[in-house]
Design goal:
2 domains; mainly alpha; two-stranded parallel ribbon; Rossmann fold
Length: 154
Amino acid sequence: MPGQGGLDAIGMLRAKAPDMGILILSGYSEEHYALNLIRLGASGYLNKDCEPSQILEAVRVIALGKRFLTPAVAELLAQQLNRPSDAPLHDQLSEREMQVFLKLARGASVGEIGEALSLSVKTVSTYRTRLMEKLNLSSNSDLTYYALKQKLID
């Protein structure tokens, strides 16, 4: 979407029509984006490689005021329920996700992080999305606050 991303669109739609059903149809896999988008207000998430019948089913379910979860997204949600509740969320980050997380928390841009870690901007953005989902955060300022609160940066 030119000029804005899915996160921006969800926020805008929820502000204007809180009860509207929102189905995200994305080229990205569920494991990288679905949970974060659903947490932010999407009613369902499908990958563009899905069958047309699945889109129809999702629209019908969401039109009834319910959420539509694929088996893959339901499994991701179940996995989150199984993690120890007393462990800090950042313990589940991979080493590379933690590197990206700390640099973002300190205010580095995606481009700067890519250059520092010899990664493409797209790869850094993917890491950012994954870690935001794992930490249940929605913005870079949330990342910084979390890092400060957990004493990961000063």
